[in-house]
Specification:
CATH architecture: Beta Complex
Number of helices: 2
Number of domains: 1
Distance between the termini: 26 Å
Structural class: alpha+beta
Order of helices and strands: HHEEEEEEEEE
Largest sheet: 6 strands, antiparallel
Strand order of the largest sheet: 3-4-8-7-6-5
CATH superfamily: Peptide methionine sulfoxide reductase
Amino acid sequence: MKNKSNKYWSTKLDKFSYKILREAGTEMPFSGKYNMHFENGFYKCKGCGNKLFESNSKFDSGCGWPSFDKSIKGSIEYRDDHSLQRKRIEIVCSNCGGHLGHVFNDGPTETGMRYCVNSASLNFKEK
């Protein structure tokens, strides 16, 4: 799915999700529908449906975006991002290449990781 055109994605996604997933946009903190969402299930890529995170890996980091301490193995690719004149690690869906957010090594759980994800890049499937 990584070779799909911008036209394809513009017909599949709403404008805001397109901006996030295809143009590496960011939603305002504390505005996303999954920020304080703690139901049992899994979070998947809004673009292609790839399973990304189990609900038991989600935690309230207080940063304003949905946060997870681990991803489903093989579901995410990592890219260096120097866009804010500092090095960050961008996370993208391994299936469609859609921008999800960033990962940081300051998480409070035993993994030490904090996957900071835009709600607009996700859908939720209840178990």
